[in-house]
Design goal:
Length: 243
């Protein structure tokens, strides 16, 4: 019999959030902690925060040590949230820029997921949540590396959902629209860009990092146990809007 009272319960779930220094990742980590999860945050910039590890997310050796440390303490790791993302590597060389963006936005997701896989208890299973972007569904100007990386997250999510099922791991992604963060602040400050993007939504407003917390909790909880290889779009109605 299903216990509907605990359907969205993530209390004591050992959760690792990658890319939790700021923006969406930081907010999701805060939201999970508020709902009783045992949350660990990993990011490039050091924060004075409980259970925070400063690490280059492309350094798999360091990540392995961190996951091993968490596992030794709790004897399990239940949830992985891949939220590390950059829009540009600030490189004048387009080839170097493309490689660096894909390393952070795509390769790191795969490598961290492979590390996570080793620490999941097959009996209890696990959840992986990849944070994608509206850019995975549409072309946006002057940023082919970002759009390519986020489009690839859709394929990676499906591939891992199939490969990781042997260990009872569900893999899904969330597709945010325009969320006001430090990453998008320059577009927000530009009046024309802000208004153009606002008009594209049904809600006539930009999203907040907190708007991603509910969908993340749903995918991390038992409420989504029959969902894998799928995605939830949180874009204020951007993709649904016609005229």
């Amino acid at each position: 019999m299903v216990n509907y009272k605990n359907l969205f319960n993530i209390k004591n779930k050992v959760t690792v959030v990658i890319g939790a220094t700021r923006g969406i990742g930081k907010e999701i980590a805060t939201g999970f902690t508020a709902n009783g999860a045992i949350t660990y945050s990993i990011g490039r910039t050091k924060l004075k925060k409980k259970n925070f590890f400063c690490c280059n997310i492309n350094d798999t050796n360091q990540l392995e040590k961190i996951f091993n440390q968490i596992y030794k303490k709790h004897k399990r790791i239940d949830i992985l949230i891949n939220c590390a993302s950059i829009t540009s590597a600030n490189s004048k060389d387009y080839r170097d820029n493309f490689k660096k963006v894909l390393n952070t936005n795509l390769s790191s997701h795969y490598f961290v997921s492979k590390i996570f896989y080793k620490y999941v208890n097959k009996t209890f299973g696990g959840k992986i949540i990849n944070i994608s972007s509206l850019g995975s569904k549409m072309g946006f100007p002057n940023n082919p590396a970002y759009v390519s990386s986020k489009s690839a997250i859709s394929g990676l999510t499906k591939a891992l959902a199939l490969d990781f099922y042997k260990k009872n791991i569900k893999v899904n992604s969330i597709v945010p629209g325009y969320i006001k963060t430090s990453m998008t602040i320059e577009s927000y400050k530009n009046k024309k860009k802000r208004e153009d993007r606002t008009k594209r939504t049904i809600f006539k407003k930009w999203g907040k990092p907190s708007d991603l917390v509910g969908a993340s909790i749903f995918l991390a909880s038992s409420a989504s146990n029959y969902i894998t290889g799928s995605e939830i779009i949180v874009d204020g109605g951007w993709l649904a809007k016609g005229l």
